[in-house]
DNA sequence: TCTGGGGTCCTAGGACCC
DNA sequence: TCTGGGGTCCTAGGACCC
């Protein structure tokens, strides 16, 4: 029989901080912050640090103000990634229906596993004790009929707990809460709803769906209506880690890179050099994934934090660094010429969109009368060298 | 010493075509 | 020589997630 609540959301507790201090018992009562260095944000804070009000996503400077004696360390993905992979593999011993949404979170559909392993609550406890035993860290599990409610439940289960929200308890337990608890309602939508006098989930549920659609737009209105009644049935998509660039597959639609400069910069030569560095990285990833993209998009964030983006779609898809860069640098120049003038630049980014698999026929066919400038060969040579000697072995002349 | 980096999806207007 | 609808593509911006 299919259980009423077949969806599990498993969320590691303070994953980065927990893993990085796991073998250092002397740090267990010390506030530890991962990330948040110069101009950065907090990626993870252990529970002692949270007692000072430190939260992930917070500017590092603010965290330092709240707790000056906290120990701050950069994330060590060489340590974190294998732990994450092993945990996700543990999930797959229960069900193949695992959607990995980040290094430290996944949704599981266990409807086919109850016969073998028992009810979802039992499965949750099994997974929790295995993760504790094998990796020395704790996690929390939300259990519900849908991913959106399971996600909400796991947040309430933290730390180191399990929470079930069955459909017949949804209204009683969720309607009194602030709309911001809903998965998919961020700060902007929350503020908007609050301004309309809709503060709790129940307040929104009392509004007719047609009115909601008129107030918030067709899609958001309809989606929100489903969320507040717990009827959203967005399907779990098995796989998915590639979306986050953690190496398990590659993203489908776009690949990009951006960087916040150590100091705000006005000098165009410096900005172009940074753009080339990022472009080389992105194009190499596109090639490695065996894809090409048609749209190049450049993002600039100015010192006042206003962010502008310009894109250009090419007639023919490319994976050639120099072709992407030629477009990107024109977009950058246009942006600097017409953007909020006089402001220094804080961040530059480049993205290749409209990715699709590279078919042999796409090859490097020449437009009539055009000479192949040899860039694809140069790219392949660079890719091979990076493959053999590592990324630091190869630098483009203009980066030296 | 305010505010990262990697993605996805939706909206809305204009161009262009039928 | 007046009015139009529908579909797709492109661009810019914004919201959301971890």
UniProtKB/TrEMBL annotation:
A Pfam cross-reference name: IMS
Keywords associated with the record: Cytoplasm, DNA damage, DNA repair, DNA replication, DNA-binding, DNA-directed DNA polymerase, Magnesium, Metal-binding, Mutator protein, Nucleotidyltransferase, Transferase
Residues with site note (Substrate discrimination): 16
Cofactor: Mg(2+)
Residues at the active site: 105
Stretches assigned to the UmuC domain: 7-186
Cofactor note: Binds 2 magnesium ions per subunit.
Coiled-coil boundaries: none
Main location: cytoplasm
Catalytic activity from the UniProt record: DNA(n) + a 2'-deoxyribonucleoside 5'-triphosphate = DNA(n+1) + diphosphate
The protein's Enzyme Commission number: 2.7.7.7
Locations listed in the record: Cytoplasm
Binding-site positions, Mg(2+): 11, 104
Subunit structure: Monomer.
UniProt family annotation: Belongs to the DNA polymerase type-Y family.
Known function: Poorly processive, error-prone DNA polymerase involved in untargeted mutagenesis. Copies undamaged DNA at stalled replication forks, which arise in vivo from mismatched or misaligned primer ends. These misaligned primers can be extended by PolIV. Exhibits no 3'-5' exonuclease (proofreading) activity. May be involved in translesional synthesis, in conjunction with the beta clamp from PolIII.
Annotated protein name in UniProt: DNA polymerase IV
Species of provenance: Nocardioides daeguensis
Gene: dinB
């Amino acid at each position: 029989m299919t259980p009423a609540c077949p969806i599990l959301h498993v969320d590691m507790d303070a994953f980065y901080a927990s893993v990085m201090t796991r073998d250092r018992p002397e740090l267990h009562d010390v506030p530890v912050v991962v990330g948040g260095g110069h101009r950065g944000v907090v990626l993870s804070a252990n529970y002692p640090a949270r007692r000072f009000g430190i939260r992930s996503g917070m500017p590092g400077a603010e965290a330092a103000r709240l707790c000056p004696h906290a120990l701050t360390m950069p994330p060590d993905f060489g340590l974190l990634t294998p732990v994450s992979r092993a945990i996700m593999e543990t999930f797959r011993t229960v069900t193949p229906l695992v959607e990995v949404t980040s290094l430290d979170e996944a949704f599981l559909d266990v409807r086919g596993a109850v016969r073998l392993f028992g009810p979802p609550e039992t499965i949750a406890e099994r997974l929790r004790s295995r993760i504790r035993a094998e990796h020395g860290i704790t996690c929390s599990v939300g259990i519900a009929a849908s991913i959106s409610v399971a996600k909400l439940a796991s947040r309430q289960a933290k730390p180191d707990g399990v929470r079930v929200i069955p459909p017949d308890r949804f209204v009683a337990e969720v309607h009194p809460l602030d709309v911001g608890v809903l998965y998919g309602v961020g700060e902007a939508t929350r503020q908007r709803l609050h301004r309309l006098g809709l503060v709790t989930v129940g307040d929104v549920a009392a509004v007719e769906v047609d009115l909601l659609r008129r107030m918030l737009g067709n899609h958001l209105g309809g989606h929100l209506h489903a969320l507040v009644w717990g009827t959203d049935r967005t399907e779990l998509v098995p796989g998915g880690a590639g979306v986050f660039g953690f190496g398990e597959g590659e993203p489908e639609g776009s690949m990009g890179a951006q960087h916040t400069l150590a100091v705000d910069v006005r000098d165009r030569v410096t900005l172009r050099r940074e753009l080339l560095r990022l472009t080389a990285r992105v194009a190499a990833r596109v090639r490695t994934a065996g894809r090409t993209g048609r749209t190049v998009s450049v993002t600039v964030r100015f010192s006042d934090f206003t962010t502008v983006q310009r894109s250009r779609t090419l007639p023919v898809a490319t994976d050639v660094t120099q072709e992407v860069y030629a477009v990107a640098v024109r977009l950058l120049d246009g942006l600097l010429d017409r953007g909020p003038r006089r402001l220094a630049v804080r961040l530059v980014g480049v993205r290749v969109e409209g990715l699709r698999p590279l078919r042999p026929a796409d090859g490097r066919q020449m437009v009539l009368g055009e000479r192949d400038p040899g860039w694809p060969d140069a790219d392949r040579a660079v890719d091979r060298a990076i493959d053999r000697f590592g990324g630091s072995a190869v630098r483009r002349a203009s980066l030296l």
